[in-house]
Every structure is written in structure tokens, then in C-alpha cells.
Design a protein that fits this description.
By secondary structure, this protein is of the alpha/beta class. It has helices at residues 27-35, 56-69, 87-92, 104-114, 116-125, 135-138, 177-186; strands at 7-11, 15-16, 24-25, 44-48, 72-76, 96-99, 129-133, 143-146, 154-156, 166-168, 193-196, 200-205, 208-214, 221-226, 232-236, 239-241.
Length: 245
């Protein structure tokens, strides 16, 4: 099974601390798998760590967490060369694609170099659920804020634009995120969009917003817009608390 409509769960979470593993799958990731509507077999979940240079420790951590949760794991690596003969076939065979954080600028460059941007769009249109954290959230949008270029946040404006919004991540945990995101919307560098506090995510069905969800009680997502006079408005969203399985 695949999602009935193209589906993205863009998050600032999805991983939770673990006593035995580096990290474990959190309720946001479980929700992404639920959205894929898999029945009768283990959900196929592909981990993509391009933004971290395909860091081997993170890939191993994903496999450990995925096996613990009962997923059928795989991964796509591009460094130093693709780890599979046909990345498109791998991505299209999945129920969920989970993209890790790191450098969004580096990720977008490598994806375009290898045609992964086109494969991701095709997978999304085919009903494979796209999800991820931080860079793995911004990449689906038209743009967002990034530390890819240095400590000071800068805009990235060449996201895949599967949805016509910008994206702000780590909205409550990194001091620059909120003011820089708002200023870039105010001056028109970024389109209006959705911002997520750590532990929260926004769900898109097709290219439209569907709901905000959180794996941490009390956390919130926001819609940030620009008024005709150039001022910015920030609207807290009703954010549904997800329960751990």
C-alpha cells in the first residue's frame, strides 16, 4: 500500500533518546509509517543521510532503530558513489523515505547532481510518504533558513518546492531561527510558511497543509505570513499530540 494522496510529514523531530541505542524512532516517525497504510508486512523505510555526507554511524543507528521497531530498513547513500545501481528504483519501492539533517545546501546539490530530486518528486506523486528532520524537512519546501554556509543563518531558496511554502525548523531551540525566519518572510526572500518547534511536524496532503502534530506535550507549530504592509504575523496552530505505540 501507499498513501492515498501525495504525503509529506515535515518535522523538527522523529527521533527520541534511547537507553540502549544511539536513538530510537519517535511518534512522528511512527505516524509517517502509519500514513503509508501498510498492512500484512513490515513497512519499507529508506534512510537518506546525504546532508551528513552519508555518515556511517548515523546509517547504522537508523538500522538499529528500524529493526527494533519492526521496519524493513534500507538506505540510499551517494558518497563516494551511489550504493545501489538504480536509486530511483530503490526510492519508488519504499513506503516511507526518511531524510536526516545536516547541510541542506549540500543535500540539494548532491540530489540534483544524481537526479535524486526528480526521483523524490516521482516517489511523492506515487504515494511514498516523505518525512525527515531539519534538512529533511526544509528540502520539501520552497526554502527556509540554514546554517549550511556558516554559524550565521542564511536563506536557502532552491528547495524542491513540492509544497509552495517555506519552512522554519528548530523554532524554539536555536536563538536565530525565529527572528531570521520572520525577517526573511518580511522582506520577501522567503514565501510564507510553516515553522516547527522541536518535536513537532506539519502534515501536507498533496500541496496543502493538513494538520500540525507533536511528539512532545506542549510543543507547537506555526504559520508565518507577511501582511501587505510588510509586517509578519505568526499564528500558532492547533497541534495534536501523538501517542507512543
Amino acid at each position: 500500500m501507499t498513501a492515498a494522496v501525495p504525503t509529506i510529514l515535515a518535522t523538527s523531530g522523529g527521533l527520541v533518546p534511547s537507553r540502549r541505542l544511539r536513538w530510537e524512532v519517535g511518534p512522528l516517525t511512527d505516524y509517517a509509517v502509519e500514513l503509508a497504510e501498510v498492512s500484512g508486512r513490515a513497512p519499507r523505510v529508506c534512510f537518506v543521510a546525504t546532508a551528513m555526507g552519508d555518515n556511517a554511524e548515523q546509517i547504522k543507528s537508523f538500522y538499529d532503530a528500524a529493526v527494533q521497531r519492526g521496519f524493513a530498513p534500507s538506505h540510499l547513500a551517494l558518497f563516494p558513489m551511489p550504493n545501489v545501481e538504480n536509486p530511483r528504483d530503490l526510492l519508488l519501492s519504499q513506503d516511507v523515505i526518511w531524510v536526516f539533517g545536516g547541510s541542506v545546501a549540500g543535500l540539494l546539490a548532491m540530489w540534483r547532481l544524481h537526479g535524486i530530486d526528480l526521483a523524490m518528486r516521482e516517489a511523492w506523486q506515487a504515494g511514498v510518504v516523505l518525512t525527515g528532520v531539519s534538512t529533511g524537512s526544509i528540502c520539501w519546501h520552497s526554502g527556509g533558513t540554514t546554517d549550511s554556509f556558516g554559524i550565521q543563518l542564511r536563506p536557502v531558496t532552491d528547495g524542491l518546492a513540492l509544497v509552495p511554502f517555506s519552512n522554519g525548523v528548530h523554532y524554539d531551540s536555536e536563538d536565530q531561527r525565529r527572528p531570521v525566519y520572520q525577517s526573511l518572510i518580511a522582506d520577501g526572500t522567503l514565501a510564507p510558511g510553516y515553522a516547527t518547534e522541536d518535536g513537532t511536524g506539519v502534515l501536507y496532503r498533496g500541496s496543502g497543509f493538513a494538520e500540525a502534530v507533536t511528539e512532545e506535550a506542549g510543543k507547537t507549530a506555526y504559520y508565518v505570513d507577511r501582511s501587505p504592509d510588510g509586517t509578519v504575523t505568526e499564528q500558532p496552530l492547533d497541534t495534536r499530540l501523538l501517542r507512543a505505540p
